[in-house]
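Quick question, first post here. What does this chain look like in 3D?
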Amino acid sequence: MAVTGTAAHGPLAGVRVVELAGIGPGPFAAMLLADLGADVVRVDRPGGSGLAINPEYDVTNRNKRSVVIDLKAEDGPARLLDLVERADILVEGYRPGVAERLGVGPAACHARNSALVYGRMTGWGQEGPLAQRAGHDIAYIALTGTLGMIGKPDEPPVAPANLLGDYAGGSLYLVVGVLAALHHARATGAGQVVDAAIVDGTAHLSAMIHGMLAAGGWQDRRGANLLDGGCPYYGTYETADGQYMAVGALEPQFYAEFVDLLGIEDQAQARKDLSRWGELRETVAARFRTRTRDEWTAVFEGSDACVAPVLSLREAPAHPHLAARGTFTDHGGITQPAPAPRFSVTHTSVRSGPAQPGADTADVARDWDVPDLLKGSPE
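> Answer (accepted):
Ran it through. Tokens below.
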């Protein structure tokens, strides 16, 4: 398949993706596919998605192109199916049954393109008692047990923004799923439906913890374990200026360097003595409060103590390591994370800013050879 549109490079160059506009994990998954070089056409609805963000700043729509199709209009489904016929992957995030009622469900799409990978992104999944219920990230991760793991034992669980559910348990699993299904489709000619549910993906992320729980190495409560803040040498500590340092000195050799640089060598033996963890935490906290974040950063610079400053979103891009790697990039006046991961041959980049609704209709109609796409176009 010829490379067209914005898919100039990247390992997915030549792959065509139709994204039915939504919010949250679906658009992020489609952005990741676009970052990797796929030609992603976002099908926006008239009037927009209702998301309270200016489309010019919605970086989850970068590296994509946009057309507007009213799927409730008489000719709407037919115009979408013309795109589907030429696509490799479709991504949608409606409640179960909505795409079918609109006439663009898996059966209708596979009738036009039997090799299509039909990716479905939902919170609860396509079936089950809660499948038809509304929800958001925080509710999905609450039921999986993962939200209950996060936070201090004497305080309410802490919501990790919408990173754990929407994007880690949702978007990333959808991308893995559709790419695996695409591999199968190209080998066999048979497309299929990928049911990516945030509850499934988030639960899957906790696989190691469940193993530790079964082995007796993890307590089923917050702030009592090695990786959840219960351990005094794996957590965050306030500094003299009200900032924070993150400590992850788990291994013996890293812990030894940590207590040495912190100036509490006399606490070295407290590492394995659970009865002394409370005392050790208080000692560590008191030491960190004696200097500023920048001062402690200088102390641990170049060491293997596994200590790092806790940076804000605006501070992170300027960190020397991230700046050297180009972890963040500026495009169109917006500082944003650069595409990840990296490839030695098929390099990726931010090639275009957020797609504006309907702005690319003529180009997509030409590149995908779908002239009827221009019928009723707002352009």
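Confidence is low (pLDDT under 50) at residues 1-7.
The CA atoms of residues 99 and 375 lie 22 Å apart.
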